[in-house]
Amino acid sequence: MNGDVKAADKDDFALVRLDRPVTEKPVRIAERAGRPGTPTRILGFGTTTDTELEFAERLQELKTRRGTDTECAPGYTDWTRWCTISRVPEVMACFGDSGGPQLQKGRDGRWELIGATSGPGAPGVACPAGPGLYTHVPAYAVWIRTAIRRNT
Fold this sequence. Notes:
The chain is mainly beta. It has one helix and seven strands; from the N terminus they run E-E-E-E-E-E-E-H.
């Protein structure tokens, strides 16, 4: 867990140590996220509505864009969290998607990690209908790399 946690609603991600090596290459953490408006993709196995708790059997993918601070509720965004907007009306990350990746295409055309699903971007709005709030992963890149080095 991130040892710098200062509030219950921030820094909500963890690293997991696997008990054996895997052959898959990890996704690269972006040096920096694109500006608001940058096309992104989110992935997850979460529900598609906020009224049922049936999780997807196959990985879901949604085209999104990095939103502006004003597209989420006031006070929700800061240098560690940002707003994400779906390019499909009434569809967004929902229950079970927390911690899932938000990706952008790097300059070389490869996908790179910029965010982790955190929660809704506005209070009282059903998850598929509103903006999403994403943790800014590049802001924690030094902590992530240090934790990996310390534990391998």
